[in-house]
């Protein structure tokens, strides 16, 4: 009985179990790799928040620079030729 049962289990695992596991994780990988509408909305919101924070920081640096002529910002000034609002 054991001589018949073991090969059946091995063949079942090779031809049914292994492809099932592979296709399951391939499907999970493909669905996880796409952005949902909620993800896109969250990214747009984060972009807008980052842009507003950048503008606030630039305003604060201008105010400090006006009060203190020796002030040097710790970060480089944003370049004017780069358009942050450009959507790809």
Main beta sheet, described? none
Computed CA radius of gyration, to the nearest angstrom: 29 Å
Name the average pLDDT: 84
Order of helices and strands: HH
Number of strands: 0
Helix content: over 70%
Query: Could you say how many structural domains there are in total?
Result: 2
Task: Describe, in plain words, how this protein is organized in 3D.
This protein has 88 residues and is mainly alpha-helical. It has two domains: 1-34; 36-68. The chain has helices at 2-32, 37-67. The chain is rod-shaped.
Task: Write the SSE topology.
Layout: H1 2-32, H2 37-67
Short description:
The chain is an all-alpha fold and 88 residues long. The chain is built from two helices and no strands. It has two domains: 1-34; 36-68.
Task: From the structure above, extract its key features.
rod-shaped; membrane; transmembrane helix; 2 helices; 2 domains; 88 residues; mainly alpha
């Amino acid at each position: 009985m054991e001589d018949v049962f073991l090969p059946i289990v091995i063949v079942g695992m090779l031809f049914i179990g292994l492809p099932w596991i592979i296709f399951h994780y391939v499907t999970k990988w493909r669905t996880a790799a796409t952005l949902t509408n909620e993800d896109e909305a969250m990214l747009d919101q984060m972009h807008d928040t980052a842009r507003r924070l950048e503008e606030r920081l630039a305003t604060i640096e201008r105010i400090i620079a006006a009060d203190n002529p020796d002030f040097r910002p710790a970060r480089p000034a944003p370049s004017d030729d780069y358009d942050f609002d450009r959507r790809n």
